């Protein structure tokens, strides 16, 4: 019965309960999007262009693919000269630092940073820095970029025109069930960083939980009257290239075809990525999904949720500080 209810909810989300198409003007605003050459990031870029953004930075790993995306964006929005393609490799701290430095030095202002780049991995593999790849890119690297962009966002923000730092997260963070071994560990991130426990979907959800912990901590540090609105968003179950590393077998292909029936299009999913940066202060520190600010879920609704959030967010900073001490020493 619970499985049928779950499928009914997916069907309702995919085919009936679509988020509204944003209509707010972004005239005169500069928007930065990572993972912008395809999927949700690209569709969000198109929407920002159609809504009048004056400059859109397409953060991409491949310049060639970024230039192709730029051409398509210009054709669909019928606006030329507003998009720039900048390279950023979210697996490299040096690349992330260079990207953030370029934003700080070359942009007159930055109104929105939409950190959308993410991965779904189906085999255990560690990054250059020793972390499982989803934990690395979806959490650690994304948090690093957010921290590095905050000074530029603060500099650009005005009381009547607040800047936004928006993290693309996932409602799957609510599904993480932390065992006592992990929950009571003095090093929670390290306790998960092992091949023995690795499962693709649970680790994807875990990476998004870690991201949510950091987002909430950053929002709390920014304060209740923020200069920058720090927030998060889930587009729902969407047809994207996130699972591009998936090894396809006939059975998996069939299952994938069934799943697409319950998925939103990237255009529909991207609506939430745009609307989240129109919420104002009420969106600060929140989780936006299905056109609603969602109640706390997962560990955040548990008695020790605050303690776990603080521990995980501190561990993320400590992990980053090992490899980028010159940048992160100024963040505390």
Automatic annotation (TrEMBL):
<keyword id="KW-0560">Oxidoreductase</keyword>
<dbReference type="InterPro" id="IPR036291">
    <property type="entry name" value="NAD(P)-bd_dom_sf"/>
</dbReference>
<dbReference type="InterPro" id="IPR002347">
    <property type="entry name" value="SDR_fam"/>
</dbReference>
<dbReference type="Pfam" id="PF00106">
    <property type="entry name" value="adh_short"/>
</dbReference>
<protein>
    <submittedName>
        <fullName>NAD(P)-binding protein</fullName>
    </submittedName>
</protein>
<dbReference type="GO" id="GO:0016491">
    <property type="term" value="F:oxidoreductase activity"/>
</dbReference>
